[in-house]
Design brief:
Layout: H1 3-15, H2 21-34, E1 68-75, H3 82-93, E2 97-99, E3 106-112, H4 117-120, E4 131-139, H5 143-159, E5 166-172, H6 181-186, H7 188-200, H8 212-220, E6 241-245, E7 253-256, E8 286-287, E9 293-297, H9 306-329, H10 356-376, H11 380-394, H12 400-418, H13 426-435, H14 443-446, H15 468-471, H16 478-489, H17 496-513, H18 516-528, H19 535-551, H20 555-569, H21 577-589, H22 600-604, H23 612-629, H24 632-646, H25 652-666, E10 677-678, E11 684-685, E12 695-702, E13 711-712, E14 743-749, E15 754-761, E16 768-778, E17 782-785, E18 790-791, E19 798-806, E20 810-821, E21 824-829, E22 841-846, E23 852-856, E24 873-882, E25 886-895, E26 903-909, H26 915-921, E27 922-924, H27 926-930, E28 940-948, E29 965-976, H28 978-982, E30 985-998, E31 1001-1010, E32 1016-1025, E33 1031-1035, E34 1041-1043, E35 1048-1056, H29 1081-1086, E36 1092-1096, E37 1101-1105, H30 1114-1120, E38 1125-1131, E39 1134-1135, E40 1142-1145, E41 1149-1158, E42 1167-1175, E43 1184-1187, E44 1191-1194, E45 1202-1205, E46 1208-1211, E47 1215-1226, E48 1232-1245, H31 1247-1251
Helix pairs in contact: 1-2, 2-20, 9-10, 10-11, 10-12, 11-12, 12-16, 16-17, 17-18, 19-20, 20-21, 21-23, 23-24, 24-25
InterPro entries: Ig_TRAPPC9_Trs120_1st, TPR_TRAPPC9_Trs120, Trs120_TRAPPC9, Trs120_TRAPPC9_N
Organism: Magallana gigas
Domain Trs120/TRAPPC9 TPR region: 537-668
């Protein structure tokens, strides 16, 4: 580090306090790189004269390039398009390795499209820098065009004539024999002859490499002495003229021949004394004294043998090289010349060459040059021995530059041996290394593909005298050799380019070895090397540093040098739009190093990373570059990204400034800027949805109001029994970060408006005006209703409602929303919002359904209790009834939609235990409803709802003032029609009905007594007036009885004895009312025979008394039921009963005849006991004498058998006596069943009293 840089660094350190060391380093390097180039480097040798240095640096060079043959591929002429040349180039560069026939070696080739002539002059210093082959590619249609094409080819060849071994001119658009395509088509005989020539000739379409005239001339002339400028021993330049001739045609033109080296040991040269070869197709175009082959092809599609011709060309280069290697191996010491670097030649002018040190320099440099040739010839092991020998020779004479070249060559040979490449795998990758500045970046990956075998014969070690492990340096020692070479190069200012390329080679080798920190030291050395290069080379230099830093994992440094390269593009005040485009392209590539990604998915993963200050600076530079380019949409995209990505780290003033900038940019273009933008370099800028401006906290689809929500029809509905509910706190199979599928448990209806509610925040310091905001959906066509909310500054949550209308049925996917904020359109996807736990909202849309308006004739209730299905309530109705009273209510349905109503069903919704009871309170006729269908649009339907004041009419000592009963339920109406009905969907609405049932009459006491007739009985009721008004009671055909409020009246209702039906299933007894009392089976049956009605004249209210809930005792039921025993009783010959009590006199004999017929079903093993008693006050007394038998036992009683008993009683004292007649039936299981005849009352009068 120089003194000037130290002082600069200290100043920067004070001005950048608070940043990390890496940031300080970047700022310091930035200052150094952008400063003017210093006049000298402290480590370089001071020279007075301007040296001859290389003008261009090969930033993509690798250590393996030392073994490659450099071939120049030129686009010749203007007829051939760039696209066609690119196809030929792609096919050519794949031939980077060619197996040599007869040799166990491969020839590695490097292809270049452009190569400076100054760099070619350094071929004596390093052989791999010399252009050995030339391939010119062009197109022509006529002979005249070919002449021009050949002239261009000749001019290129003359530039590199001093080093070329061989060359080819590939011409498209002519026949393989060199004739125009039209001639072959017009002359079929010539075409046939030409095809026969192709079959006879092994290399048809190719002129001889060395023309016959050149052959003769070559053997006539003696070999010239080698010069310094021709280290390969080429012949001197010839000045003879050549001709382009056609067989059988006039010469076209005479031109001067270009100087071409002819090599004595070239395997493709013609031996002396050999007559010139005559080709069968002698009408091919030739150039005398050119030494070049011309390959003709009709088109790029018709050149299948192009690769074979190129292989032959590469093989020819190899054999010439092999010949030169053998020449150098056996060259005499007295003829050795001094090889020099271009800038060294002036130093040896006038120098004494007859010294020992000079001869050692000549020997050492020649040995080093021989090592280069061995390495190119596929003998790296032999090359290592020559490099080591050259070092030993040159070290005593302190030839530092060439010693450094020896160490570099030694390291390169070691890399070739220790990291050999497969020939098959290197077909494309090898060329990629030689042509791209990134080729060293793939060495780390390709190292895994290399065999690593130390006995690989393709490295040329089969001729090595020692084992490879003793000859080749260890991989760990390679870097030491590179450092030695770097130390020697640093002594020469003119070798700065060589030093830079060496550092890049070492870095790539270390990257391949995985030694990233050591690789970074070589890259830092590149930064401080002073070299006068063009602005374009500086840009390429920084880009190469960036790519190599990225390869070793220093991504932020890589991004830093990308920024330096971008600044270099526009460092000149006269920067053009093209320079700004290049600047923008480099800046966009530097974003990844600063953890800035335009990929929304990558950006959303994890918290914010990177330094916001640096990120803001880079994005500002990107925006400025886009504006200078004149690409306003791109500037808008970058500004949008910046405000979206970094607004949380900006100050209020920065937020306001960037917002105003964005608004100004959007006013300059009409483009909504919501599509991907393609850059000039092919990169795609994805759209930047402003998901944070405004920030959406919640996104919720609001379900339709319950009475409008679609419901599955009962006949289409699935079973609601989904099994038992099992709760577990365990999280089985789901992560907390997993998003659910967003499936809604409700549906929407086509052509009905749905609503989405968003809670948004505005992070900006000014009011945010969203000029457009709506939904993004899939699956179902939607009619949106965009809104334009204005969100106050720095506020939230702010409610935004988005409305839409599905146009058809299907599954609707709401995947996001769109906005237009500050002139920028954004399509925000729900999957990109981390605050939401779903990627999309899925909801089913059913076909259109009708909509009705439901009303009743009852007054609306002020409030009502909420319960199950209360959400379907659209209206309410309330009334007051007295127990037993009934009324009618009119329910109206009006169709307010465009769909007809074809299905209507009504149902009372209540608790299961109340369903039967409320079914008695509310009643209607479904036949009446069905008769009015279908209900057309705007049509009206009415049906009658009967409301009954059902009560038990019993009292459990409840206060009469609080005995009112409130009955509340829902009358749910289900309706459907049109396509929705066909799909099995409907809508449901309900009326909340509230009925207060007040007590009217309460049954306090009830009983059953026998009537005068045996087949009748009396039902006795004590009725209490609980209505609070005067009330009248009327039953059967009797006159009405008035009861005052709070008073009780007894009534007797005579009915026929009945035979009760069998008891029903117990589920019938589950119809309960609020008082939790059961209806009685017997009472329900008796209720049809009892008609008791009440009337309240003051209220004009009337009703019917019900006895459904009365519980009868067993004795009472016997009085009501038809007895299984038929009685026939006579008293003194008269049938009983008679009204009132019988009067009898004392000592009068009472004859009783009782006949009993048993009608029970059982008839086997049954006995009966029949007896008659006469007693007073339920006690046996001695005042009665029994005449005859009053007890009879019948051992066997059959069905229908009559049992007879005839006792007589004599009463001695007056009083009230009772005659009881009983029949006890004893079954076979000894179960006794007693039947009573109703008691007979006797009023016995004393004789004296009667006489009195």
């Amino acid at each position: 580090m120089t003194c000037d840089f130290v002082s600069e660094y200290n100043l920067l350190k004070k001005s950048t306090a608070g940043y990390s060391n890496d940031c300080l380093y970047d700022v310091a390097v930035l200052k150094l790189l952008m400063a003017p180039v210093q006049s000298s480097n402290l480590g370089y040798m001071q020279q007075t004269d301007k040296p001859r240095t290389m003008s261009t640096i090969d930033y993509g060079q690798t250590a393996e390039d030392h073994q490659g043959l450099l071939v120049l591929v030129k686009h010749t002429g203007q007829a051939l398009s760039q696209q066609k040349f690119r196809k030929v180039w792609d096919r050519t560069k794949k031939l980077n390795s060619v197996s040599i026939p007869g040799q166990n070696r491969n020839a590695w080739v490097r292809y270049k499209q452009h190569y400076p002539k100054e760099n070619n002059e350094w071929g004596d210093f390093q052989a791999h820098r010399k252009v050995l082959g030339l391939i010119s590619v062009g197109e022509c249609r006529t002979v005249e065009e070919f002449e021009d094409l050949f002239d261009h080819y000749k001019n290129v060849k003359e530039e590199y004539a001093s080093t070329l071994f061989n060359s080819r001119l590939i011409v498209f658009g002519m026949n393989r024999d060199g004739t125009p395509l039209e001639e072959e088509m017009d002359n079929p005989v010539l075409s046939l002859h030409s095809s026969q020539d192709k079959a006879d000739s092994e290399d048809s379409g190719v002129t001889s490499d060395i023309s016959p005239s050149d052959n003769v001339a070559m053997h006539e002339k003696p070999l010239l002495k080698e010069t310094k400028s021709d280290p390969y021993g080429s012949v001197s330049k010839s000045s003879s003229e050549g001709k382009i001739t056609f067989v059988g045609k006039k010469p076209l033109k005479k031109q001067e021949s270009s100087p071409v080296p002819v090599y004595q040991y070239s395997p493709i040269s013609t031996p002396p004394g050999t007559p010139p070869l005559q080709r069968p197709h002698s009408n091919s175009l030739t150039k005398d004294s050119t030494g070049a082959e011309v390959l003709f092809f009709p088109s790029i599609q018709d050149c299948s043998d192009l690769e074979e011709k190129l292989k032959e060309f590469i093989v020819s280069l190899f054999f010439v090289l092999e010949g030169k290697r053998l020449d150098r191996s056996f060259e005499r010491h007295d003829r050795i010349q001094l090889l020099c670097a271009p800038f060294e030649r002036k130093d040896y002018v006038g120098l004494d060459t007859d010294t020992k040190s000079f001869r050692k320099k000549c020997q050492g440099r020649l040995r080093k040059h021989l090592a280069d040739l061995c390495l190119q010839a596929g003998l790296p092991g032999e090359a290592i021995l020559h490099y080591e020998t050259a070092i030993d020779i040159l070290r005593p004479v302190n030839d530092a530059l060439w010693i450094g070249a020896c160490y570099e060559g030694l390291s390169s040979a070691a890399v070739v041996i220790n990291y050999p490449k497969s020939v098959v795998l290197s077909g494309l990758r090898r060329n990629y290394f030689s042509l791209s500045s990134k080729r060293g970046s793939s060495m780390l990956n390709e190292a895994k593909l290399r065999t690593g075998s130390l006995n690989n014969k393709t490295n040329g070690m089969e001729s090595a005298p020692e084992n490879l492990s003793r000859v080749a340096p260890d991989p760990t020692d390679i870097m030491d050799k590179f450092r030695e070479a770097l130390g020697h190069y640093s002594k020469f200012k003119s070798a700065a380019v060589i030093e830079i390329e060496l550092s890049l080679k070492a870095c790539r080798v270390l990257t391949m070895q995985g030694k990233c920190l050591q690789a970074s030291t070589f890259l830092q050395n590149v930064i401080y090397i002073n070299c006068n290069i063009s602005e374009e080379d500086k840009i390429l230099r920084y880009c190469t540093l960036s790519e190599l830093y990225a390869d070793i994992g220093f991504h932020r440094k890589a991004a830093f040098f990308k920024r330096i390269a971008a600044m270099q593009c526009v460092s000149s005040p006269q920067a053009t739009q093209q320079n700004w485009s290049c600047c923008y392209s480099l800046l966009i590539q530097a974003l990844d190093g600063y953890n800035i990604s335009h990929n929304l998915i990558e950006r959303c993963n994890g918290p914010h990373s990177g330094w916001p200050v640096l990120q803001s600076r880079v994005l500002n530079e990107l925006i400025f570059s886009a504006r200078r380019m004149g690409k306003i949409p791109i500037a808008i995209r970058n500004t949008t990204f910046m405000i979206h990505f970094l607004h949380q780290f900006m100050t209020l003033m920065e937020k306001r400034d960037i917002s105003q900038t964005l608004e100004q940019l959007t006013t300059q273009t009409d483009d909504g800027n919501c599509q991907s933008l393609a850059l000039d370099n092919g990169m795609i800028l994805p759209p930047v949805p402003l998901t944070t401006i405004p920030y959406v906290k919640s996104f919720k689809l609001i379900r339709m109001r319950p009475h409008l929500e679609p419901v599955k029809l009962k006949r289409y509905g699935e079973s609601t029994n989904s099994g038992p509910f099992i709760f577990t706190p365990l999280n089985l199979g789901m992560s907390r970060n997993d998003k659910d599928d967003g499936k809604m448990d409700f549906g929407l209806v086509a052509r009905d408006v749905c609503e989405v509610q968003l809670q948004v925040y505005n992070p900006l310091p000014d009011e945010l005006k969203v000029t457009q905001m709506g939904l993004i959906v899939e699956g179902v066509e939607l009619e949106p209703y965009p809104c334009n909310p204005s969100i106050p500054a720095e506020t939230g949550p702010y409610l935004v409602k988005l409305l839409c209308r599905p146009k058809s049925e299907g599954e609707l996917h709401i995947i996001g929303y769109f906005t237009k904020v500050m002139g920028v359109k954004s399509q925000c996807r729900l999957k990109d919002l981390d605050q939401l736990n779903f990627d999309k909202i899925k909801v089913s849309v059913v076909p259109p359904l009708p909509q009705i308006m439901l009303t009743t004739s009852l007054p609306k209730a002020d409030n009502f209790l909420s319960g199950d299905n209360s959400e379907y309530v659209v209206t309410s109705g309330t009334t007051v009834l007295y127990a037993g009273q009934s009324m009618e209510c009119l329910v109206t349905l009006q169709n307010t939609s465009l769909q007809p109503v074809e299905h209507v069903d009504a149902e009372v919704i209540c608790k299961i235990e109340e369903k039967d009871y409320l079914g008695q309170v509310f009643q209607w006729s479904m036949e009446n409803i069905q008769s009015q269908l279908p209900l057309q649009p705007n049509g009206i339907m009415c049906f009658t709802l009967c409301i009954n004041g059902v009560s038990d009419f019993l009292s459990d000592n409840v206060d009469l003032e609080t005995a009112d009963q409130c009955v509340e339920c829902l009358l749910r109406v289900e309706y459907s029609g049109g396509d929705g009905l066909q799909a099995g969907h409907c809508r449901q609405c309900a009326v909340n009905l509230s009925v207060d049932i007040c007590p009217s009459v309460i049954i306090q006491v009830w009983d059953a007594l026998p009537a005068e007739r045996c087949d009748h009985c009396y039902l006795i009721f004590d009725l209490l007036n609980a209505s609070g008004h005067d009330l009248s009671i009327q039953h059967s055909n009797q006159e009405s009885v008035s009861i005052l409020p709070g008073h009780t009246e007894r009534i007797a209702v005579e009915i026929e004895r009945c035979d009760f039906p069998s008891l029903p299933d117990m589920t019938y007894l589950r119809n309960r009312i609020k008082q939790s009392k059961n209806t009685n089976h017997y009472s329900t049956y008796l209720n049809q025979f009892v008609d008791i009605r009440w009337k309240i004249p003051s209220l004009k209210a009337s009703g019917k008394l019900s006895i459904d809930y009365i519980e009868w005792s067993e004795e009472q039921l016997r009085q009501i039921q038809i007895s299984p025993i038929e009685w026939e009783v006579k008293l003194n010959g008269s049938f009983f009963p008679q009204k009132g009590a019988l009067e009898w006199s004392v000592l009068d004999c009472l004859d009783v005849v009782a006949s009993v017929t048993v009608n029970t079903e059982e008839s086997c093993n049954r006995s009966a006991l029949l007896y008659i008693t006469c007693h007073q006050d339920d006690d046996d007394c001695d005042n009665v004498s029994v005449l005859g038998v009053n007890t009879a036992f019948f051992e066997t009683v059959k069905q229908g058998q009559s049992l007879l008993i005839n006792p007589a009683f004599l009463i001695h004292c007056g009083g009230i006596y009772t005659i009881d007649i009983k029949c006890v039936v004893i079954s076979s299981e000894e179960v006794e069943e007693t039947f009573h005849y109703h008691p007979v009352k006797l009023h016995v009068i004393e004789i004296a009293d009667s006489a009195f």
